[in-house]
């Protein structure tokens, strides 16, 4: 069946496919171009090459189980998707999250946001030819992922932010590793500013290309760094403050012209603001109930010492999943019994703990929001990431819909590249930060 | 401009079109009659309400209930930072509704997605065809009567 | 005495060994990246977990110039014909690594839209599990593939080896 472009194209123009498996297409988007020489007369986008049926799957999984699917949506900033979903469910349940958990959530989501912007700009720069920038930013991203891995257990798809709080407390050495990550990221940002900001080649490829006016951007439903680059300072963290963002000081950088260069600049400045938020979180984090152990005991030593009849000192190894011990439980998870897993000390030793653990996971029980619907949005790496959940009182959502910011950004691409050269498609596409997991769901 | 005033104004201007208003979990929602959609949307876009952004457009399939489908629109007023949810119901038999593509540009792709997933036709849409699924796919996946694991492979699979 | 009788011959086996050694340490890979595993692929290819020290550093963005197809990420039903076309365009000898749980078996997505494993479309040599696999796991898979390449009967005559 001929596509719309094939039907409408002039008979003597060239049709070129930037196909579904293209190194610069961030995965699998197909752009069909109608060319006259190098100029683009018309274009058409085809999506759906990563449609994984997220919304249909969610209707068949319980509220707790579908958390893992939310990680894989915007896979460069997975903690923010977790956060959006969890806060929608908490809105329906009316849960109050402890303060330390809120600060930890903010810290983790800002680290994810930095990693998102680093990846986006690294890919955009690499596609324009600046391979060094890509390597530098990946190096900085590794330090951030080290921090996330030490606390959550996984580098990328963490499923760390749970309904009612977070899964585990920060690991004992978090302060030094977060400071190292912040330091390395600042160094890399300084280097990249020096490499790209006034670079003639980069300016030629990004200045005044892919220009979007503010009114047009609102018409297209743009949000996030792309909207802020046109001059409108709309940020969900300021407009509808959630968690502890109203207590933290950060600026909202905006651009002027709405072209590719402004989108690049806005993202670089936002990373600096996110680093500021991370440092403020480190200062203001409420104290943990458990004094953090300075050194860790080797598990083999602990087992050996436990075998002797009278161990000389108390064995300081965690009886639970590390970070989720009973004393810290009240810092990281809400007190509402029905919505969170009880600590393992209770599950394995008391009958009430066992029953509540069992009932949480059994079919038909567990997290059951009341009947109704709710919409909640958080500031994702690309804009307003919204979740619309309809619940019918059972343990599975009746309908879960994701408001994907990428869809609105990409819908405007056909308009942005019309009349430009083929080579302009690459930085325009790269600066919009299209993440297919979110776009195609 | 308070939410209450907006709802009152709406009820005064379109008395027969608004069926009910609700405030679940703090979100304001209005349920309207199908043919009132374009009038209400144009009314909300004007001053002083200025709902100038369409955030989202989706559909819910209440199988077993008549009318079966419910379209849900989220609109947003940037200056006043206010959101509003508009809902309308569609019957099972040949569901169709006016398209918002002439009003907001992003409605184009959002409506194509709803057509792809649910099979709802939009009148006035410039180019209504599937967005995610491929040509040759039969059925509309997000409807409740489409089984989760029913695969329609495009090429001959080895196993 | 044809070429077939030479199998087991000292020169033949040594030549085989040298060819295997050359092929395994100069793999040009084509990263067929679709989804989240792409991020771990980028990490594997970059400075911290360098894939270049194993000889597989150069990414060739054209199937005709590469000999290792890295299927990274979920393959959907819509994407399957494209993958088959890309695989068919590759020249012999060619190997395939299925990177990530979704490429190995469909992963956590068991529904209407996802192919349950890339081996339903193309033959796979090494399966690297993980969601996403750690870069060390990927490098381990690459080393296993290199062992496989070393041991296999090198195909230095023009002949279709597998379908």
What does the model show?
The complex is a heterotrimer of chains A (441), B (159) and C (163). Chain A contains 20 helices and eight strands. By secondary structure, chain A is mostly helical. In chain A, the strands form three sheets. Chain A has a three-stranded antiparallel beta sheet. Chain A is globular, with a radius of gyration of 24 Å. The longest helix of chain B is centred in the C-terminal third of the chain and has 12 residues. The radius of gyration of chain B is 18 Å and the shape is elongated. Chain C has 163 residues and is of the alpha/beta class. Chain C has one domain: Rossmann fold (3-Layer(aba) Sandwich). The mean pLDDT of chain C is 86.
Count of separate structural domains of chain C: 1
Indicate the CATH class of chain C.
Answer: Alpha Beta
Number of strands of chain C: 4
| Shape, principal axes of CA atoms of chain C | globular
Characterize the biggest β-sheet of chain B: 5 strands, mixed
The number of helices of chain B is 3
- CATH topology label of the domain at 3-92 in chain B: Beta Polymerase, domain 2
String of helices and strands of chain C: HEHEHEHEH
Shape of chain B: elongated
Which class of the domain at 3-92 in chain B in CATH terms? Alpha Beta
Order of helices and strands of chain B: HEEHEEEEHE
Helix content of chain C: 25-40%
Strand content of chain B is 25-35%
The proportion of residues forming helix of chain B, as a percent range, comes to 10-25%
What is the C-alpha radius of gyration of chain C, as a whole number of Å? 17 Å
What fraction of residues of chain C sit in β-strands? 5-15%
The neighbouring-strand order within the major sheet of chain C is: 1-2-3-4
At the third CATH level, what is the topology name of chain C? Answer: Rossmann fold
Tell me the span between the first and last alpha carbons of chain C: 29 Å
Q: What's the overall average pLDDT of chain B, rounded?
A: 85
Name given to the CATH architecture of the domain at 3-92 in chain B = 2-Layer Sandwich
